[in-house]
Amino acid sequence: QGQEKLSCNPKKENGTHVVLCELGNPMKAGARITVDMELSVSGLEDMGDAITFHLQLRSKNSPSPSNASVTVTVPVEAEAEMELRGNSLPAVMVLPTSWHRLEGSQRLEDHGIKVEHVYELHNKGPGTVSGVTLSLAVPHLLGDHVVLYLLELGTEGGMNCSHHPALNPDQV
């Protein structure tokens, strides 16, 4: 008839995480109760697509083989919002129409003006992410003409990177 907060205590029992909730003592014979539980579970990133709870009603007073037990499976959906930010330094580059790169030169300035592109991939949460793949296509050729001479590719923050075979082909 009334609503009461349950007193629940988490503990480990035989390698399993258990939450014990005291429903009331003594309880009248034939009493019927309804319990709504809200559980907050962390660290579900590697749990797969569902988590299973085993719920059981036990009585301390009279052990009975009819102790009710039910299994509840709840789907797990990871949520994370990724954001990609990019910047080019300088932001605008205009080459003279008469400029041509010097074939065979090992000097950077003979291959063009340095333009640096920086991309940042951010996880805005709330969940963590792993196994993210970012594919970035850079137009380095226009027909047979070099538009951008790709010199190097670097990463920060423990990321693995594979690069296009056209990276620094003249070993400048």
From TrEMBL:
PANTHER family: INTEGRIN ALPHA, INTEGRIN ALPHA-IIB. It is found in: Membrane. It is a single-pass type I membrane protein. It comes from Poecile atricapillus (Black-capped chickadee). InterPro entries: Integrin_alpha_Ig-like_2 (IPR048285), Integrin_alpha_Ig-like_3 (IPR048286), Integrin_dom_sf (IPR032695). This is ITA2B protein. Residues 83-171 form the Integrin alpha third immunoglobulin-like domain. One of its GO terms (molecular function) is integrin binding. Residues 3-76 form the Integrin alpha second immunoglobulin-like domain. Keywords: Glycoprotein, Integrin, Membrane. GO terms for biological process: angiogenesis; cell adhesion mediated by integrin; cell-cell adhesion; cell-matrix adhesion; integrin-mediated signaling pathway. Coiled coil: none annotated. Pfam families: Integrin_A_Ig_2, Integrin_A_Ig_3. GO terms for cellular component: external side of plasma membrane; integrin complex. Its main location: membrane.
